[in-house]
Amino acid sequence: xxxxxxxxxxxxxxxxxxxxxxxxxxxxxxxxxxxxxxxxxxxxxxxxxxxxxxxxxxxxxxxxxxxxxxxxxxxxxxxxxxxxxxxxxxxxxxxxxxxxxxxxxxxxxxxxxxxxxxxxxxxxxxxxxxxxxxxxxxxxxxxxxxxxxxxxxxxxxxxxxxxxxxxxxxxxxxxxxxxxxxxxxxxxxxxxxxxxxxxxxxxxxxxxxxxxxxxxxxxxxxxxxxxxxxxxxxxxxxxxxxxxxxxxxxxxxxxxxxxxxxxxxxxxxxxxxxxxxxxxxxxxxxxxxxxxxxxxxxxx
Length: 300
Ligand code: FJH
Ligand code: FE
Fold this sequence. Notes:
By secondary structure, this protein is mainly beta. The chain is built from two helices and 26 strands. It folds into two domains: 18-142, Sandwich (Jelly Rolls), CATH 2.60.120.10; 144-252, Jelly Rolls, CATH 2.60.120. The strands form six sheets. It has a seven-stranded antiparallel beta sheet, with no helix packed on it.
């Protein structure tokens, strides 16, 4: 007797159009996960699409307890942290920053040309929250790509697609796939059945999931948790562009106060104390100021 392998498609259970909101100093973001309508999607805390033509940015601010994934689509961003790590992200570049026990940094557009990018916040399990901070930086040329057929272009930011694996290490098991499709093209992204996930649409239109949900740009499409192991997509326009993001839920309590994300209120008080007194990972934080914070006259 031969075993039949049945694939189960994920469906779209919720679709939310991102609305523009202000954050940082003069920075407009389209907030997806993390907005009122999409509080948390364990293990994800936030996804922002940043698409501005004016200066503005995110001057000196701390993070603890999670990772930030910054993926530039267009334009240039500068970053600088309190330990002297600094650099520049251009179109197609990736920075996977595990803030863990503490990072204090600034993220500012490099010029007043349009900047377009995504920032994802991935939560860390309690065992990883107080780990050493870590950066993984990949310029555009080092991001692995797969073209399963003409008109289907996939960049594997994290995880695997069509047998191509990303070298990015994820403390919380995560996949992050950037897909561009020409009109009428189809693709299927394999997703581990226990992962929670969503699609964020950037441009064009397509039919998503087993139920062929039609969607256009700037929507967050939450994937069903029906033990499905793949998501099918068929584009209905040229230049269809979206990201598929999924990860293993952590299943722990989340207590968030702005840039500190811990498991208990007590740990949040501790984070404030450590940040103010410069200890437990925030050594050197009091009194530090970045050299890029007031690049546009935006002193925080
Ligand atoms: C003052 N200083 C409020 C402040 C808030 C922050 C924040 C930012 C990003 C981000 C999003 C998209 C991107 C590619 C390039 C970064 C974000 C991106 C999310 C919060 C709370 C800083 C200084 C402030 O950082 O890089 O696209 N999103 C959530 N807020 C801040 O970082 C007031 C005086
Ligand atoms: Fe930040």
